[in-house]
Amino acid sequence: MTEQEILELLERTGALLTGHFKLSSGLHSDRYVQCARLLQYPQLARQVGEALAERLKNSGFEMPEFVVSPALGGIVIGQEVAAALGVRHIFVEKDDAGKPVLRRGFAVGRGEDFVVVEDVVTTGKSTAEVIDLMRSFGAEVVAVLSIVDRTGGRGPLFRAPFMSLVSLEFNVYEPEKCPLCAQGIPLVKPGSRKEVR
User: Fold this and answer.
1) Burial class (CB in 10 A: 0-12, 13-18, 19+), 157
2) Cis omega before residue 72 (within 30°)?
3) pTM for the full predicted model
4) Which is it for strands 28-33 and 16-22: parallel, antiparallel or unpaired?
5) What does the alpha-carbon distance between residue 15 and residue 73 come to, in Å, rounded to a whole number?
6) Distance of alpha carbon 135 from its chain centroid, rounded?
7) Where do the structural domains in the chain lie, given as residue ranges?
């Protein structure tokens, strides 16, 4: 799938939102990507998962033994990529203290290769947490895959090859300098991750 085709899917499914959003970083933005709106359609989720798997296969990297995703946003697309690669899929959750953990009987073997699959990468914080947790079990990261790259050219916080299907740049504002606040536009906190302080 081309970047344009992915962008059209995001637009068609209402995954590209316009308004006044409070991001998990605490910054404000006039745009937001809610990939769950795209991934709610199983046939589209499968197509996007296959496109990400194909990107990895064509990259020349080693094929992983498993795919791992952060809950909640990465679970659906992680499952689809794993299916396309023919490997198992696990996901990382947060404990009550907000620390990433494996639950549900998932196990990782020393020396296993993995890829992290996300819906959107913005700062790379949740991705870095997943990589660190997998490395603590002795596993080795091959690459990170995401539907959307929102790093804005700043580069993510993790050290691993990174591939996405589309790159998007949105306006972001410090809350005290936000023109949307100045206009009185209601602020919405989308997403599943708690605000980072």
Assistant:
1) middle
2) yes
3) 0.89
4) antiparallel
5) 13
6) 19
7) 3-182
Q: Identify which has the larger pLDDT, 18 or 190.
A: 18
Class of domain 3-182 as given by CATH: alpha beta
The three state secondary structure string of the chain is CCHHHHHHHHHHCCCEEEEEEECCCCCEEEEEECCHHHHCCHHHHHHHHHHHHHHHHCCCCCCCCEEEEECCCCHHHHHHHHHHHCCEEEEEEECCCCCEECCCCCCCCCCCEEEEEEEEECCCHHHHHHHHHHHHCCCEEEEEEEEEECCCCCCCCCCCCEEEEEECCCCEECHHHCHHHHCCCCCECCCCCCCCC
How far, in Å, CA of 83 to CA of 67, rounded? 10
pLDDT in tens, 43-93: 999 999 999 999 999 999 989 999 999 988 899 999 999 999 999 999 999
Residue type, position 119, single letter = D
